């Protein structure tokens, strides 16, 4: 992966191909796409019917021959052809116009920390479909840290935790580079899965595919801590619609196991870090980014486990693409270190 600010400033477009959402930043225009990474396809003809939120609205409601698919899984493109078609559909003429003005379009894409070469190649191929002749790959952790406004280029330690849908990535950065990092395959999806399993085993209730969002709001609303939330779903045995009262404290217990894996990853990164940097971190605290950073109580849980101050970024879900955007706009200046004189 590259982190040449000069090369990045020549890019026209910055892309974050997330497991849950696809985001595109166009130079001089800002964020032009922020849509679910979903495509609805007619399996008889192979034609694309809808992408993004339109496809999301169809999930669980389609006839047999229409499938809603996720071309990106775990932060990696798993279906290159479908991801290319989805991205082309999402950006449509907004980028094509820019490309006509600047045919040697360069793109920057952020990839999960330690992405395999095959995942890097897949991302490059997807971006090539937009007409990019050259693709710069940037570690999500660095892009997110820049997007949160952390002073990554300074010789001071900063710690970022990016809680996405498929994974959580943790890093300590200093002088524009990663000093120690960890990635665990636990994110918002695993937390949702724990909630679904809890409802299924304790209440014998199956949730509709789009039933989790209102459930998030009801269950994690701090004003309703320790209360009961009404949840409607389908009875596992009879198949009939049923409403149950769910104790929010029990649901919080159910999501404790996936969250423990996140706390362990933070602990491992801190242990790997040189003591001087840990002292910096004790002063500066931990920055939380990614959509799952919005999970109420996650910041307090990390604070209690580490004894360090935890802050949630202003727009946690779009930090990575906005950080990449700031880099292609040339807003991040490299630190010039004077050569030591003998
Ligand atoms: N208010 C909220 N409360 C709880 N979880 C939330 C909230 N808003 C978003 N999420 C979760 O955030 C996740 C999406 O985060 P994000 O947009 O960072 O994912 P992504 O970048 O597509 O994923 P990844 O980084 O794993 O590729 C989803 O799992 C979603 O359920």
Automatic annotation (TrEMBL):
Biological source species: Streptomyces luteoverticillatus (Streptoverticillium luteoverticillatus)
Biological function: Forms membrane-associated dynamic filaments that are essential for cell shape determination. Acts by regulating cell wall synthesis and cell elongation, and thus cell shape. A feedback loop between cell geometry and MreB localization may maintain elongated cell shape by targeting cell wall growth to regions of negative cell wall curvature.
Family assignment from sequence similarity: Belongs to the FtsA/MreB family.
Protein name: Cell shape-determining protein MreB
Annotated PANTHER family: CELL SHAPE-DETERMINING PROTEIN MREB
Biological process according to GO: cell morphogenesis; regulation of cell shape
Highest taxon, organism lineage: Bacteria
GO molecular function, one term: ATP binding
UniProt main location, coarse: cytoplasm
Gene name per UniProt: mreB
Binding-site residues for ATP, renumbered to this chain: 165-167
Subcellular location field: Cytoplasm
Complexes and interactors: Forms polymers.
An example Gene Ontology CC term for this record: cytoplasm
Claim: Acyltransferase is one of the keywords in the record: no
Keyword set, alphabetical order: ATP-binding, Cell shape, Cytoplasm, Nucleotide-binding
Record has Glycoprotein as a keyword: no
């Amino acid at each position: 992966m590259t982190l040449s600010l000069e090369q990045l400033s020549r890019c026209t477009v910055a892309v974050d191909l997330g497991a849950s959402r696809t985001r595109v930043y166009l130079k001089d225009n800002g964020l032009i796409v922020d849509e679910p990474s979903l495509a609805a396809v007619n399996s008889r003809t192979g034609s694309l019917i809808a992408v993004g939120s339109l496809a999301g609205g169809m999930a669980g409601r389609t006839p047999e021959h229409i499938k809603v698919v996720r071309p990106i899984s775990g932060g990696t493109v798993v279906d290159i052809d479908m991801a290319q078609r989805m991205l082309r559909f999402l950006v449509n003429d907004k980028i094509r116009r820019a490309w006509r003005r600047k045919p040697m379009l360069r793109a920057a894409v952020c990839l999960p920390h330690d992405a395999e070469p095959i995942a890097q190649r897949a991302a490059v191929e997807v971006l090539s479909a937009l007409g990019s002749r050259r693709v710069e790959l940037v570690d999500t952790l660095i892009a997110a840290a820049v997007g949160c406004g952390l002073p990554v280029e300074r010789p001071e330690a900063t710690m970022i935790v990016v809680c996405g849908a498929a994974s959580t990535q943790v890093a300590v950065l200093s002088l524009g580079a990663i000093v120690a990092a960890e990635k665990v395959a636990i994110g918002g999806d695993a937390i949702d899965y724990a909630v679904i399993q809890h409802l299924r085993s304790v209440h014998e209730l199956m949730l509709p595919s789009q039933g989790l969002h209102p459930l998030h709001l009801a269950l994690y609303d701090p004003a309703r801590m320790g209360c009961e939330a009404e949840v409607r779903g389908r009875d596992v045995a009879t198949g009939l619609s049923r409403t149950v009262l769910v104790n929010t404290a029990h649901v919080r217990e159910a999501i404790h196991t996936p969250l423990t894996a996140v706390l362990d990853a933070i602990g491992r990164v801190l242990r790997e870090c040189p003591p001087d940097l840990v002292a910096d971190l004790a002063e500066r605290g931990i920055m939380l980014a990614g959509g799952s950073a919005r999970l109420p109580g996650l910041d307090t849980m990390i604070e209690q486990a580490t004894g360090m101050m935890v802050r949630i970024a202003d727009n946690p879900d779009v930090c990575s693409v906005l950080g990449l955007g700031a880099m292609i706009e040339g807003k991040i200046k490299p630190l010039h270190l004077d050569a030591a004189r003998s």
